[in-house]
């Protein structure tokens, strides 16, 4: 009996999740765009495309792309500190691709617009740029 109730709950949740087929398609397109944008960002930074799709490893590589030490990934598991680290890494990513502070705000609050600008646009990765703008911790 509990398995029947569980299957009914799962069915109801899945039916409500994308009640409108158009909405589900829009979400799938947005997710595919974000994945492709991350792949292109990694390729622009001279990394393999597959490194962008492995969950924790991709975050480690993104931290390395921004010029920060790889052990910063541990700080992402610390509450409150993770927010600060995420903002610093996002800002450094923005700088490494030739953008500034306002672009960082866009990356933080409207990522589905600004990540494709970096990944699919004419942005060029400059590893030597702004290496000393934030402390290395």
Number of strands: 0
Number of domains: 1
pLDDT averaged residue by residue:
84
Regions with little confidence, pLDDT below 50 for 5+ residues: 1-10
- Separation, N- and C-terminal Cα atoms: 55 Å
Q: How many strands, which pairing sense, and closed or not: the largest β-sheet?
A: none
Radius of gyration: 18 Å
User: Which structural class fits the helix and strand makeup?
Assistant: mainly alpha
Helix content: 55-70%
The portion of residues forming beta strands comes to under 5%
Notes on the structure:
The protein has helices spanning 2-17, 21-44, 55-65, 72-75, 81-96, 101-109, 111-120. By secondary structure, the chain is mainly α. The protein has one domain. Helix 5 crosses helix 6. It is globular, with a radius of gyration of 18 Å.
How is this structure best summarized?
The protein has about 140 residues and is mostly helical.
Spell out the key features of this protein.
mainly alpha, 137 residues, disordered N terminus, 66% helix, globular
Write the layout of secondary structure elements.
Elements lengths: L1 H16 L3 H24 L10 H11 L6 H4 L5 H16 L4 H9 L1 H10 L17
Helix pairs in contact: 2-7, 5-6, 6-7
């Amino acid at each position: 009996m509990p398995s029947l109730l569980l299957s009914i709950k799962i069915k109801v949740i899945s039916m409500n999740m994308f009640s409108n087929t158009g909405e589900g398609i829009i979400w799938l397109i947005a997710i595919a765009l974000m994945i492709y944008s991350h792949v292109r960002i990694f390729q622009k930074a001279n990394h393999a495309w597959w490194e962008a799709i492995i969950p924790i490893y991709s975050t480690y590589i993104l931290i390395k792309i921004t010029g920060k030490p790889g052990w910063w990934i541990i700080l992402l598991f610390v509450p409150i500190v993770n927010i600060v680290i995420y903002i610093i890494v996002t800002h450094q990513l923005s700088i490494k691709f030739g953008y500034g502070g306002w672009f960082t705000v866009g990356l933080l609050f409207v990522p589905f617009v600004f990540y494709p600008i970096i990944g699919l646009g004419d942005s060029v990765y400059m590893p030597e740029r702004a290496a000393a703008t934030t402390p290395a911790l």
